[in-house]
């Protein structure tokens, strides 16, 4: 299995700070790189993180607030400059197509034909392994889920009981039957791994659906609970609410990010304390250039 990990390029919300760049997250997933919400400065953060333009296969924008998209011009121009050969799929809310075009052609540069545009609309949209769901924010915003197809886990004792060994095991997996023995008799279902990316939103059904059972959830925690009214007004989550989502959805590994500039590293224990009021699983408080592996498969 190829390496699956999250490379965190930026963790601030509307205003970057001395220690936190605007948003930017690269999910490495089986040879594909999903770049979510490249905010201002993402191209430089990629250099610091050892991420090249060739590592990007998808550019996924949740919405068109600046901290989630102002890095697009630099990233695309770098893709062109470095002569990336593979297709790069750009996924973004269809309602923001005018903003996309302005970002896409923000300056004079030698253009590239590898960018494939995939605007999404409606409540549910899918593009290959990527699913988008409409969230609750003052502007149209989408969350994303990357899903591996389900598979099966072979049971050695069942294979041995039926005398299936060597090349016959591969044949059973490919065809579903060997000498009258079906795959179902020698295996059990194995759910595919999944990761979800949820940025600016209030609590809504789509948040829980995107997070349902995922191995890795990257989610905004813009405010602490003392700013609950402000969070609701501006369409954001608190750390407690992010933990609530993780607990109810059965998330394995939780990554909190998109912190308001009003908070510093000294506030991290308070964020963790709030999350622990609702979620007792594994938690990472994101910092720029941190790497978070996707948890190993459940057996």
Automatic annotation (TrEMBL):
Sorted alphabetically, the keyword list is: Endonuclease, Hydrolase, Metal-binding, Nuclease, tRNA processing, Zinc
Give the binding site residues for Zn(2+) 2.
67-68, 200, 258
What domain of life is recorded for the organism?
Bacteria
A GO molecular-function term, please?
3'-tRNA processing endoribonuclease activity
- Subunit note: Homodimer.
| Record family assignment | Belongs to the RNase Z family.
Protein name (database record) = Ribonuclease Z
What is the species listed in this Swiss-Prot or TrEMBL entry? Nonomuraea ferruginea
Chain's gene name:
rnz
